[in-house]
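Whiteboard transcription, Tuesday session. T.W. wrote the C-alpha coordinates on the left side:
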Protein backbone atom coordinates (compact mmCIF):
# COMPACT_ATOMS: atom_id res chain seq x y z
CA UNK A 1 0.00 0.00 0.00
CA UNK A 2 1.83 3.13 1.14
CA UNK A 3 4.99 1.00 1.18
CA UNK A 4 4.32 -0.34 -2.32
CA UNK A 5 2.02 -3.23 -1.38
CA UNK A 6 -1.20 -3.20 -3.38
CA UNK A 7 -4.67 -3.54 -1.89
CA UNK A 8 -5.66 -7.18 -2.30
CA UNK A 9 -8.86 -7.32 -0.24
CA UNK A 10 -11.76 -4.97 0.36
CA UNK A 11 -15.31 -4.97 1.65
CA UNK A 12 -18.24 -3.74 -0.44
CA UNK A 13 -21.02 -2.51 1.84
CA UNK A 14 -24.17 -2.00 -0.18
CA UNK A 15 -24.55 -4.40 -3.10
CA UNK A 16 -27.31 -2.88 -5.22
CA UNK A 17 -26.88 -2.01 -8.88
CA UNK A 18 -23.90 0.30 -8.29
CA UNK A 19 -22.24 -1.54 -5.41
CA UNK A 20 -22.80 -4.97 -6.90
CA UNK A 21 -21.29 -4.01 -10.22
CA UNK A 22 -18.33 -2.29 -8.56
CA UNK A 23 -17.75 -5.45 -6.53
CA UNK A 24 -17.60 -7.46 -9.75
CA UNK A 25 -15.27 -4.88 -11.29
CA UNK A 26 -12.85 -5.10 -8.37
CA UNK A 27 -13.00 -8.91 -8.47
CA UNK A 28 -12.28 -8.87 -12.19
CA UNK A 29 -9.06 -7.00 -11.38
CA UNK A 30 -7.89 -9.62 -8.91
CA UNK A 31 -9.27 -8.19 -5.68
CA UNK A 32 -10.87 -10.45 -3.06
CA UNK A 33 -14.22 -8.80 -2.29
CA UNK A 34 -16.25 -9.39 0.86
CA UNK A 35 -19.90 -8.46 0.39
CA UNK A 36 -22.23 -7.03 3.01
CA UNK A 37 -25.83 -5.94 2.46
CA UNK A 38 -29.03 -6.11 4.55
CA UNK A 39 -30.56 -8.23 1.79
CA UNK A 40 -29.29 -11.78 1.41
CA UNK A 41 -31.07 -11.93 -1.93
CA UNK A 42 -29.13 -8.91 -3.21
CA UNK A 43 -25.81 -10.49 -2.27
CA UNK A 44 -26.84 -13.81 -3.79
CA UNK A 45 -27.65 -12.03 -7.07
CA UNK A 46 -24.14 -10.57 -7.13
CA UNK A 47 -22.63 -13.99 -6.41
CA UNK A 48 -24.74 -15.57 -9.18
CA UNK A 49 -23.46 -13.00 -11.66
CA UNK A 50 -19.93 -13.59 -10.42
CA UNK A 51 -20.33 -17.30 -11.13
CA UNK A 52 -21.49 -16.59 -14.68
CA UNK A 53 -18.45 -14.34 -15.16
CA UNK A 54 -16.03 -16.87 -13.68
CA UNK A 55 -15.33 -14.69 -10.63
CA UNK A 56 -16.99 -16.80 -7.95
CA UNK A 57 -13.69 -17.54 -6.16
CA UNK A 58 -13.07 -13.84 -5.51
CA UNK A 59 -16.32 -12.91 -3.77
CA UNK A 60 -17.93 -14.03 -0.54
CA UNK A 61 -20.79 -12.67 1.55
CA UNK A 62 -20.87 -11.84 5.25
CA UNK A 63 -23.96 -11.03 7.27
CA UNK A 64 -22.17 -9.50 10.28
CA UNK A 65 -19.65 -6.69 10.52
CA UNK A 66 -17.47 -8.83 12.79
CA UNK A 67 -17.09 -11.59 10.19
CA UNK A 68 -16.77 -9.02 7.43
CA UNK A 69 -13.86 -7.28 9.15
CA UNK A 70 -12.11 -10.54 9.98
CA UNK A 71 -12.08 -11.39 6.27
CA UNK A 72 -10.02 -8.32 5.42
CA UNK A 73 -6.33 -7.54 5.57
CA UNK A 74 -4.57 -4.71 7.37
CA UNK A 75 -5.33 -1.91 6.99
CA UNK A 76 -8.95 -2.80 6.31
CA UNK A 77 -10.47 -1.15 3.23
CA UNK A 78 -14.21 -0.61 2.90
CA UNK A 79 -16.20 0.71 -0.06
CA UNK A 80 -19.67 2.12 0.61
CA UNK A 81 -22.44 2.17 -1.98
CA UNK A 82 -25.38 3.35 0.08
CA UNK A 83 -28.36 5.72 -0.06
CA UNK A 84 -27.41 9.22 0.97
CA UNK A 85 -28.17 10.39 4.50
CA UNK A 86 -28.42 8.52 7.77
CA UNK A 87 -27.69 5.05 6.36
CA UNK A 88 -24.01 5.89 6.08
CA UNK A 89 -23.95 7.07 9.70
CA UNK A 90 -25.54 3.82 10.84
CA UNK A 91 -22.94 1.77 8.96
CA UNK A 92 -20.04 3.80 10.38
CA UNK A 93 -21.47 3.35 13.88
CA UNK A 94 -21.84 -0.39 13.29
CA UNK A 95 -18.24 -0.71 12.12
CA UNK A 96 -16.83 1.50 14.89
CA UNK A 97 -15.70 -1.23 17.33
CA UNK A 98 -14.08 -3.21 14.52
CA UNK A 99 -12.00 -0.35 13.09
CA UNK A 100 -8.31 0.17 13.74
CA UNK A 101 -5.93 3.03 13.16
CA UNK A 102 -5.08 3.31 9.47
CA UNK A 103 -8.23 1.62 8.16
CA UNK A 104 -9.81 3.28 5.14
CA UNK A 105 -13.45 3.86 4.20
CA UNK A 106 -14.14 4.89 0.59
CA UNK A 107 -17.66 6.29 0.39
CA UNK A 108 -18.61 5.75 -3.25
CA UNK A 109 -22.23 6.78 -2.67
CA UNK A 110 -23.90 9.94 -3.98
CA UNK A 111 -23.50 11.37 -0.50
CA UNK A 112 -23.90 14.95 0.61
CA UNK A 113 -20.45 16.49 0.99
CA UNK A 114 -21.36 17.89 4.42
CA UNK A 115 -22.06 14.38 5.71
CA UNK A 116 -18.71 13.33 4.29
CA UNK A 117 -16.84 16.05 6.14
CA UNK A 118 -18.70 15.36 9.37
CA UNK A 119 -17.78 11.66 9.22
CA UNK A 120 -14.18 12.50 8.39
CA UNK A 121 -14.02 14.60 11.54
CA UNK A 122 -15.76 11.95 13.62
CA UNK A 123 -13.20 9.28 12.63
CA UNK A 124 -10.09 11.42 13.20
CA UNK A 125 -9.69 10.43 16.88
CA UNK A 126 -9.77 6.77 15.86
CA UNK A 127 -7.17 7.32 13.15
CA UNK A 128 -9.50 6.00 10.45
CA UNK A 129 -9.46 7.60 7.01
CA UNK A 130 -12.73 8.48 5.27
CA UNK A 131 -12.56 9.24 1.54
CA UNK A 132 -15.58 10.78 -0.17
CA UNK A 133 -15.55 9.53 -3.76
CA UNK A 134 -18.00 10.57 -6.43
CA UNK A 135 -18.64 7.81 -8.97
CA UNK A 136 -20.12 8.61 -12.37
CA UNK A 137 -21.40 6.69 -15.35
CA UNK A 138 -24.27 4.73 -13.83
CA UNK A 139 -24.41 1.04 -13.05
CA UNK A 140 -23.09 0.08 -16.49
CA UNK A 141 -19.90 2.08 -15.94
CA UNK A 142 -19.65 0.67 -12.42
CA UNK A 143 -19.15 -2.73 -14.07
CA UNK A 144 -16.84 -1.79 -16.94
CA UNK A 145 -14.97 1.10 -15.30
CA UNK A 146 -16.41 4.35 -13.96
CA UNK A 147 -15.14 7.89 -13.66
CA UNK A 148 -14.16 8.44 -10.02
CA UNK A 149 -13.53 11.57 -7.98
CA UNK A 150 -11.93 10.83 -4.58
CA UNK A 151 -11.26 13.50 -1.98
CA UNK A 152 -9.76 13.26 1.48
CA UNK A 153 -6.46 12.94 3.36
CA UNK A 154 -3.42 12.84 1.08
CA UNK A 155 -1.96 9.74 2.77
CA UNK A 156 -5.17 7.76 2.35
CA UNK A 157 -5.51 8.82 -1.27
CA UNK A 158 -1.96 7.69 -1.97
CA UNK A 159 -2.83 4.24 -0.63
CA UNK A 160 -5.99 3.73 -2.70
CA UNK A 161 -5.01 5.45 -5.95
CA UNK A 162 -3.14 2.48 -7.49
CA UNK A 163 -6.28 0.35 -7.16
CA UNK A 164 -8.60 3.11 -8.40
CA UNK A 165 -6.39 3.79 -11.43
CA UNK A 166 -6.53 0.11 -12.28
CA UNK A 167 -10.34 -0.09 -12.38
CA UNK A 168 -11.23 3.41 -13.61
CA UNK A 169 -12.48 4.32 -17.07
CA UNK A 170 -9.68 5.25 -19.46
CA UNK A 171 -9.57 8.19 -21.87
CA UNK A 172 -8.63 7.92 -25.55
CA UNK A 173 -4.94 7.92 -24.60
CA UNK A 174 -5.36 5.16 -22.04
CA UNK A 175 -5.09 7.49 -19.02
CA UNK A 176 -7.33 6.63 -16.06
CA UNK A 177 -10.27 8.94 -15.37
CA UNK A 178 -9.58 9.15 -11.66
CA UNK A 179 -7.36 11.55 -9.74
CA UNK A 180 -6.93 13.10 -6.32
CA UNK A 181 -9.50 15.88 -6.42
CA UNK A 182 -8.62 17.61 -3.16
CA UNK A 183 -9.05 17.37 0.58
CA UNK A 184 -12.13 17.17 2.80
CA UNK A 185 -15.47 16.65 1.09
CA UNK A 186 -14.22 17.86 -2.30
CA UNK A 187 -14.75 14.52 -4.03
CA UNK A 188 -18.46 14.39 -3.28
CA UNK A 189 -18.83 18.12 -3.86
CA UNK A 190 -17.37 17.90 -7.37
CA UNK A 191 -19.59 14.91 -8.18
CA UNK A 192 -22.59 16.91 -6.95
CA UNK A 193 -21.75 19.74 -9.35
CA UNK A 194 -21.07 17.18 -12.10
CA UNK A 195 -24.72 16.16 -11.73
CA UNK A 196 -25.86 19.77 -11.86
CA UNK A 197 -23.92 20.22 -15.12
CA UNK A 198 -25.48 16.99 -16.37
CA UNK A 199 -28.97 18.34 -15.78
CA UNK A 200 -28.22 21.51 -17.74
CA UNK A 201 -26.90 19.46 -20.65
CA UNK A 202 -29.82 17.03 -20.61
CA UNK A 203 -32.33 19.88 -20.60
CA UNK A 204 -30.71 21.53 -23.62
CA UNK A 205 -30.72 18.27 -25.57
CA UNK A 206 -34.34 17.56 -24.62
CA UNK A 207 -35.34 21.05 -25.76
CA UNK A 208 -33.60 20.48 -29.08
CA UNK A 209 -35.31 17.09 -29.44
CA UNK A 210 -38.74 18.65 -28.94
CA UNK A 211 -38.07 21.30 -31.59
CA UNK A 212 -36.86 18.67 -34.04
CA UNK A 213 -39.78 16.31 -33.39
CA UNK A 214 -42.72 18.67 -32.98
CA UNK A 215 -41.49 21.84 -34.67
CA UNK A 216 -39.55 20.39 -37.60
CA UNK A 217 -41.66 17.19 -37.86
CA UNK A 218 -38.59 14.94 -37.81
CA UNK A 219 -39.05 11.25 -37.08
CA UNK A 220 -37.22 9.56 -34.21
CA UNK A 221 -34.81 7.94 -36.64
CA UNK A 222 -34.15 11.27 -38.39
CA UNK A 223 -33.37 12.89 -35.04
CA UNK A 224 -31.07 9.98 -34.18
CA UNK A 225 -29.19 10.52 -37.44
CA UNK A 226 -28.82 14.24 -36.68
CA UNK A 227 -27.49 13.47 -33.21
CA UNK A 228 -25.03 11.02 -34.75
CA UNK A 229 -23.71 13.78 -37.02
CA UNK A 230 -23.40 16.16 -34.08
CA UNK A 231 -21.50 13.55 -32.11
CA UNK A 232 -19.03 12.78 -34.90
CA UNK A 233 -17.56 16.20 -35.55
CA UNK A 234 -17.47 19.77 -34.31
CA UNK A 235 -18.08 21.17 -30.85
CA UNK A 236 -20.38 18.33 -29.78
CA UNK A 237 -18.12 15.50 -30.87
CA UNK A 238 -17.56 12.71 -28.41
CA UNK A 239 -20.39 13.86 -26.14
CA UNK A 240 -21.88 10.98 -24.17
CA UNK A 241 -25.36 12.47 -23.83
CA UNK A 242 -25.64 13.18 -27.55
CA UNK A 243 -24.53 9.63 -28.32
CA UNK A 244 -27.04 7.95 -26.03
CA UNK A 245 -29.65 10.45 -27.20
CA UNK A 246 -29.30 8.95 -30.65
CA UNK A 247 -29.54 5.44 -29.20
CA UNK A 248 -32.68 6.31 -27.25
CA UNK A 249 -34.34 7.77 -30.34
CA UNK A 250 -33.85 4.43 -32.11
CA UNK A 251 -34.83 2.23 -29.17
CA UNK A 252 -37.94 0.09 -29.74
CA UNK A 253 -39.94 -2.19 -27.48
CA UNK A 254 -40.80 -5.82 -28.15
CA UNK A 255 -43.78 -4.69 -30.24
CA UNK A 256 -41.62 -2.64 -32.57
CA UNK A 257 -42.76 0.73 -31.18
CA UNK A 258 -40.28 3.51 -30.51
CA UNK A 259 -39.94 3.71 -26.73
CA UNK A 260 -40.06 7.51 -26.83
CA UNK A 261 -43.58 7.34 -28.24
CA UNK A 262 -44.91 5.64 -25.10
CA UNK A 263 -42.63 6.65 -22.22
CA UNK A 264 -44.08 9.06 -19.65
CA UNK A 265 -42.59 12.48 -19.14
CA UNK A 266 -42.01 12.05 -15.42
CA UNK A 267 -38.63 12.45 -13.72
CA UNK A 268 -39.09 11.71 -10.03
CA UNK A 269 -35.59 11.27 -8.57
CA UNK A 270 -35.40 14.90 -7.42
CA UNK A 271 -38.61 14.75 -5.39
CA UNK A 272 -38.79 11.21 -4.00
CA UNK A 273 -35.58 11.37 -1.98
CA UNK A 274 -33.61 8.86 -4.05
CA UNK A 275 -31.32 11.50 -5.56
CA UNK A 276 -30.19 14.68 -3.85
CA UNK A 277 -27.27 15.99 -5.90
CA UNK A 278 -29.40 18.05 -8.30
CA UNK A 279 -31.07 19.86 -5.41
CA UNK A 280 -27.85 20.34 -3.47
CA UNK A 281 -26.00 21.79 -6.47
CA UNK A 282 -28.70 24.45 -6.91
CA UNK A 283 -28.68 25.27 -3.20
CA UNK A 284 -24.93 25.72 -3.36
CA UNK A 285 -25.17 28.08 -6.33
CA UNK A 286 -27.62 30.24 -4.38
CA UNK A 287 -25.69 30.01 -1.09
CA UNK A 288 -22.44 31.03 -2.75
CA UNK A 289 -24.08 33.76 -4.85
CA UNK A 290 -23.00 32.16 -8.13
CA UNK A 291 -25.25 32.87 -11.13
CA UNK A 292 -25.94 29.49 -12.73
CA UNK A 293 -29.14 29.97 -14.76
CA UNK A 294 -28.54 27.14 -17.23
CA UNK A 295 -28.31 24.67 -14.33
CA UNK A 296 -31.01 26.15 -12.13
CA UNK A 297 -33.59 26.45 -14.90
CA UNK A 298 -32.97 22.85 -15.91
CA UNK A 299 -33.63 21.75 -12.35
CA UNK A 300 -36.97 23.57 -12.21
CA UNK A 301 -38.05 21.81 -15.41
CA UNK A 302 -37.15 18.47 -13.80
CA UNK A 303 -39.36 19.39 -10.84
CA UNK A 304 -42.24 20.25 -13.18
CA UNK A 305 -41.74 16.91 -14.91
CA UNK A 306 -42.07 15.05 -11.61
CA UNK A 307 -45.57 16.34 -10.97
CA UNK A 308 -47.25 14.90 -14.04
CA UNK A 309 -50.70 14.64 -12.43
CA UNK A 310 -50.53 18.27 -11.35
CA UNK A 311 -49.60 19.33 -14.87
CA UNK A 312 -52.66 17.50 -16.16
CA UNK A 313 -54.88 19.44 -13.74
CA UNK A 314 -53.29 22.71 -14.86
CA UNK A 315 -53.99 21.75 -18.47
CA UNK A 316 -57.63 21.13 -17.62
CA UNK A 317 -57.90 24.45 -15.77
CA UNK A 318 -56.50 26.27 -18.79
CA UNK A 319 -58.87 24.42 -21.10
CA UNK A 320 -55.99 22.92 -23.07
CA UNK A 321 -52.33 23.66 -23.63
CA UNK A 322 -50.08 25.64 -25.93
CA UNK A 323 -48.94 23.04 -28.47
CA UNK A 324 -45.66 23.40 -30.31
CA UNK A 325 -46.41 24.81 -33.74
CA UNK A 326 -44.88 23.66 -36.99
CA UNK A 327 -41.80 25.65 -37.99
CA UNK A 328 -41.53 27.06 -41.50
CA UNK A 329 -38.52 24.84 -42.22
CA UNK A 330 -40.46 21.66 -41.43
CA UNK A 331 -41.36 20.95 -45.07
CA UNK A 332 -38.21 22.32 -46.65
CA UNK A 333 -34.47 22.36 -46.13
CA UNK A 334 -33.79 21.92 -42.41
CA UNK A 335 -30.00 22.10 -42.58
CA UNK A 336 -29.63 25.75 -41.55
CA UNK A 337 -31.98 25.61 -38.60
CA UNK A 338 -30.44 22.32 -37.46
CA UNK A 339 -27.02 23.96 -37.50
CA UNK A 340 -28.35 26.83 -35.39
CA UNK A 341 -29.87 24.28 -33.03
CA UNK A 342 -26.57 22.42 -32.77
CA UNK A 343 -24.73 25.64 -31.87
CA UNK A 344 -27.40 26.58 -29.32
CA UNK A 345 -27.08 23.18 -27.63
CA UNK A 346 -23.29 23.55 -27.58
CA UNK A 347 -23.63 26.99 -25.99
CA UNK A 348 -25.71 25.56 -23.15
CA UNK A 349 -23.36 22.61 -22.69
CA UNK A 350 -20.35 24.92 -22.39
CA UNK A 351 -22.23 27.41 -20.20
CA UNK A 352 -23.16 24.53 -17.89
CA UNK A 353 -19.48 23.68 -17.44
CA UNK A 354 -18.62 27.34 -16.84
CA UNK A 355 -21.36 27.75 -14.24
CA UNK A 356 -20.51 24.48 -12.52
CA UNK A 357 -16.80 25.22 -12.26
CA UNK A 358 -17.61 28.67 -10.87
CA UNK A 359 -19.59 27.01 -8.06
CA UNK A 360 -16.75 24.59 -7.33
CA UNK A 361 -14.24 27.47 -7.26
CA UNK A 362 -16.25 29.46 -4.73
CA UNK A 363 -16.64 26.41 -2.47
CA UNK A 364 -12.93 25.64 -2.82
CA UNK A 365 -12.04 29.15 -1.68
CA UNK A 366 -14.37 28.79 1.29
CA UNK A 367 -13.21 25.36 2.46
CA UNK A 368 -9.57 25.43 1.27
CA UNK A 369 -9.78 22.01 -0.34
CA UNK A 370 -6.87 22.74 -2.73
CA UNK A 371 -8.78 21.32 -5.67
CA UNK A 372 -6.69 20.32 -8.67
CA UNK A 373 -8.77 21.50 -11.64
CA UNK A 374 -6.61 19.69 -14.18
CA UNK A 375 -7.39 16.52 -12.24
CA UNK A 376 -11.11 17.34 -12.28
CA UNK A 377 -11.09 17.67 -16.07
CA UNK A 378 -9.20 14.38 -16.39
CA UNK A 379 -11.84 12.71 -14.23
CA UNK A 380 -14.48 14.02 -16.65
CA UNK A 381 -12.71 12.84 -19.83
CA UNK A 382 -14.48 9.46 -19.99
CA UNK A 383 -16.73 7.11 -18.07
CA UNK A 384 -18.99 9.91 -16.85
CA UNK A 385 -22.29 11.34 -18.02
CA UNK A 386 -20.88 14.79 -18.90
CA UNK A 387 -18.15 13.40 -21.16
CA UNK A 388 -17.72 15.99 -23.92
CA UNK A 389 -14.44 15.66 -25.81
CA UNK A 390 -14.28 19.09 -27.44
CA UNK A 391 -15.11 20.92 -24.22
CA UNK A 392 -12.84 18.92 -21.90
CA UNK A 393 -9.91 19.12 -24.33
CA UNK A 394 -10.28 22.91 -24.33
CA UNK A 395 -10.58 23.08 -20.54
CA UNK A 396 -7.61 20.75 -20.06
CA UNK A 397 -5.44 23.17 -22.04
CA UNK A 398 -6.71 26.14 -20.04
CA UNK A 399 -6.15 24.54 -16.65
CA UNK A 400 -2.70 23.29 -17.64
CA UNK A 401 -1.56 26.92 -17.63
CA UNK A 402 -0.05 28.12 -14.33
CA UNK A 403 -2.35 30.34 -12.26
CA UNK A 404 -5.26 29.92 -14.67
CA UNK A 405 -8.26 32.17 -13.93
CA UNK A 406 -10.98 29.83 -12.71
CA UNK A 407 -13.79 32.12 -13.85
CA UNK A 408 -13.89 30.81 -17.39
CA UNK A 409 -15.84 33.83 -18.65
CA UNK A 410 -12.58 35.75 -18.17
CA UNK A 411 -10.81 33.39 -20.57
CA UNK A 412 -10.65 34.77 -24.11
CA UNK A 413 -10.93 31.36 -25.77
CA UNK A 414 -14.04 30.39 -23.79
CA UNK A 415 -15.50 33.86 -24.36
CA UNK A 416 -14.99 33.55 -28.12
CA UNK A 417 -16.49 30.06 -28.14
CA UNK A 418 -19.61 31.36 -26.42
CA UNK A 419 -19.76 34.61 -28.39
CA UNK A 420 -19.91 32.79 -31.71
CA UNK A 421 -23.02 30.90 -30.57
CA UNK A 422 -25.06 33.97 -29.64
CA UNK A 423 -26.70 34.48 -33.07
CA UNK A 424 -27.76 30.82 -33.12
CA UNK A 425 -29.09 31.06 -29.57
CA UNK A 426 -31.05 34.19 -30.46
CA UNK A 427 -32.54 32.52 -33.52
CA UNK A 428 -33.55 29.34 -31.72
CA UNK A 429 -34.96 31.11 -28.65
CA UNK A 430 -36.90 33.63 -30.77
CA UNK A 431 -38.39 30.95 -33.01
CA UNK A 432 -39.03 28.77 -29.98
CA UNK A 433 -41.05 31.48 -28.28
CA UNK A 434 -42.94 32.25 -31.49
CA UNK A 435 -43.84 28.56 -31.98
CA UNK A 436 -44.55 27.58 -28.34
CA UNK A 437 -41.45 25.43 -27.99
CA UNK A 438 -40.21 24.89 -24.45
CA UNK A 439 -36.67 26.31 -24.36
CA UNK A 440 -35.90 27.20 -20.72
CA UNK A 441 -32.24 26.17 -20.54
CA UNK A 442 -31.43 27.49 -24.00
CA UNK A 443 -33.04 30.84 -23.21
CA UNK A 444 -31.42 30.96 -19.75
CA UNK A 445 -28.04 30.48 -21.40
CA UNK A 446 -28.74 33.34 -23.78
CA UNK A 447 -29.60 35.57 -20.83
CA UNK A 448 -26.48 34.36 -18.98
CA UNK A 449 -24.29 35.48 -21.87
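and on the right, the sequence the group agreed on:
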Amino acid sequence: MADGTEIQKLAMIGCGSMGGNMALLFAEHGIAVSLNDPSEETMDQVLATAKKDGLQDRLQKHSSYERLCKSLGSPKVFVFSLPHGTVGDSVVDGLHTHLDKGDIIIDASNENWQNTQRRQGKLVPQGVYYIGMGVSGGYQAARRGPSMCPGGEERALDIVMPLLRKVAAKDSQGNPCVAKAGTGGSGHYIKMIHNGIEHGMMSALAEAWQIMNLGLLMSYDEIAAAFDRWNEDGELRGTFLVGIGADICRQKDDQGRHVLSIVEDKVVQDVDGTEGTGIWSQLEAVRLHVPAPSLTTAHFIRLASAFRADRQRVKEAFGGQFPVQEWGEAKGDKSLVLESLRKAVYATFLASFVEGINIIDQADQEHRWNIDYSAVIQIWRNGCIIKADYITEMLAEIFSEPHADLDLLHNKRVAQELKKTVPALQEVVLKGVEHNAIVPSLSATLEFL
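Someone added at the bottom: The CA atoms of residues 134 and 192 lie 8 Å apart.
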